[in-house]
Every structure is written in structure tokens, then in C-alpha cells.
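Review form for a predicted model. The reviewer records the input and the model, then writes brief findings.
Reviewer: anonymous (R2)
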Amino acid sequence: MTTRQYFGTDGIRGRANVAPMTADVALKIGMAAGQHFLNGDHRHQVIIGKDTRLSGYMLEAALTSGFASVGMDVILVGPMPTPAVAMLTRSLRADLGVMISASHNPYYDNGIKLFGPDGYKLSDTIELAIEDSLQGNLSGSLATSADIGRVRRLDDEHGRYVEYAKATFPAGKRLDGLKIVLDCAHGAAYKVAPAVLWELGAEIIPIGVEPNGFNINDGCGSTDTALMQQRVIEEGADLGIALDGDADRVLMADEKGQLIDGDQLMGLMAAEWQRRGQLKGGGLVTTVMSNLGLERHIKAQGLNFIRTQVGDRYVVEHMRDHGFNVGGEQSGHIVLTDHGPTGDGLVSALQVLNAIVNSDAPASEVCQIFEPTPQILENVSFKGGTPLEDKQVKAAIAEGEQRVLGTGRLLIRPSGTEPLIRVMGECDDASLLREVIDQIVTAVKAAGD
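Model under review:
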């Protein structure tokens, strides 16, 4: 079977106009993916959305040409959140969905995410089949002159998603009286997110809604929440919401400007859904990065707490295989399968807003649901070799595990995309944790020189 050369854990991603994020590669991806999904005699169609990066125009045109050249009709929706593309792929009965985005990365990166007709990200098997085609001769898949695909733009694509998102909020309830700072990261949700919250009755203070092709995620959004937190205090707002560039992640701030991360949000949703009899799977699915405090909180309620490896696709796979409907990551990528097949920052925020409306209490009381265990994450670069195989590193890790045994945990792993070792630890004793992490980091640095 083909070794992965293009697809990572979240589609294909890289520096714009540098392989594999070039127009010629995007053209071939369109041809290869289109060829794979041409099954049956019906007119086949693909939905293509994007965020607000400058390079999105180039990749959109290349992908469109690739799909059309093999006979697949293309429906362009322009800047739209990733979950909106997944939703439209299902609702329009398309054969394939494509999102052009590098999510929370800077403008100079871009990526291509593919969704099947069910709105879920493609399986490893399908991705590898597409990679096989990319390495072959694609000219044999070209359509005849009469069968070249048609290309059109979708009418009222924003309105479709706005109504979909609003429908996830309980019927008859409103956000009247709530003042919300909304940071759209100059990204894909800059039009639809303010519209949804305003139509539900909230007073909106929008920031990050003036994209220029370069400012996506720049000093704003869920990867840099300082501006959002500051504006909450300055405006006397009830809370703040920060999305990332493609709006599949969300972090929030309470009325005091205190950050509410994905762990707190997931814990709140699991508890709310359990209370309403809506929780499936008997608990929550998250990754190895989630805080130990969340695990203790969830288990104390008699609920299941499942950890997967890092990556939302692994969370979703476990949720689908075992019947869970709430899962996600500490970063704010939260998946609620009752509402959609992928993370949706806006829909997740609406679930939190519903809890606040129901409680008639401030966000600081509703959303800060557990005391986080002290957590430290250090990224240690290395020049070569395999530092985690070094005897001194192994010894440092073993010693550290013994020292935090019973009061914490360690997670040391290589980055999947960079020459980094990620050293993460949690412990009730913060000073002990600092000592343990420093000892391991020192050993890794020595081994990686």
C-alpha cells in the first residue's frame, strides 16, 4: 500500500505555492479525487469552500479545473466555515466536499480537506487510493468534450448555513439581553457567525471581521485570544467567543475576561446533555492532551472518559465506532455528532449559550466547571536522531513517571509535522511538575544536539 506523501491527520497542508500546496498538485488532487468518486450514471458534483487566505483563489481555480476535467460538476460556495461545507455536502447530496483552509495556521499556509458524501472526513483507505492515483497517469481519466463538468456558484450559501446553525439552538429560546464579543479571526465565518448570533437576539461586538487575504489568525481568533478577552472587559460584555480561521474551533471568555478552553466547554456540554437525557455513549471522548482535572470531573459524575491519540479524526472515529455524541480537543475543536459530522465552533458556542440562558447565571459560574490540574507543555527542537530512544532520556522519563505517580501523568511524544519532542505533564504539585519537566527537557536537548 502507498506510503502517505500528501495526506496528514487533517487533509493536505503546507506552505502556499510550495509543494504540495501548488496549483499543479491541486489540479491533480481534483482529478484523482473526482475520478475516485465517479460512481454511477448520475451527474456527479463536488462542493468547494474556502477560508479567506490569498492563496485560496489559486487553489480553488486549480481544484475546480481538476474536478471539471474528469466530468464532475463543481459548486463553489466561497468563504464558508469548514462545518458548513460538510453540511452542504450532505444536504445537497453531493458526492464529495472540499474545504481549502489551513485552519488556525497563518495566511502563508493553506490546506485541502476532503469530505465524503456523508460529510465525514475521508477514511485512510480512500485517502491512500487517491494517493495511488496521484502517482499514476491521470490523463486516462479525462472526460470527453461533451462530459466536462459544469461550474456554478451556489445561491444563498450563507443563508443556508445561518438557518442550519440557528436550528441547533432550542426552538423558542433567544439570546436577548446578552452582549457578546465575537472574534471571527478574519476567517471563514466573518459573515455567517455575526448573522447567526444577531438573528437570535444577541448584541454583537464583532472583531476579526475584515479579512484582506493576509490577516487570518493574525493576533486574533482562538489561537490568540488576548484581544477578545480584553474587549470583553472593556465593553462590559457577558462573554466572548473566538473562532479560528475555518471556524471549526472555538474558545470563549467569561464576563471577567477569563479564558474558557475546550476542556471546560466539553465538560459543560457533557453534563448538560446528560442532564437532558441527550448524552450518548455514557460519557465523553477526547485526546491524551485533555486536562486531568476534566477526567476527574467527568468520572466523578459516573460518566465514561475516553482518550484517543491527538487529532480530531481519531476522536470522531471512536465516537462513530462506539456511539458517543460529544467529543473533542482541549484546543476547542468540539464534535457534536447530533448536529454535524465535524467540529463546528459556532454550533458548539450555541450549546454553551443555551446553558447560560437556562441557568440565568454569569458565564464565570456556568462555564468554569472544574479546577484544572497544573499542566506544562514544552516543545523541544532537535537536530537529528531519535531522542526518545536515548538511554538518558528514557531514564529521565521513567524517574519522572515515578515522581508524579498517583498525583499526575506525563506524555512525551514526537511532533508529527516538525522536528520537535512535545513534553507534557500534569501534577497536583506544580513545583514538583516543574522539576520533572525541566529534567526531561534537559535530557531531550542533550540527546538531540
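Findings: The CA atoms of residues 383 and 448 lie 6 Å apart.
Further findings: The two ends are 35 Å apart (CA to CA).
Recommendation: see findings above.
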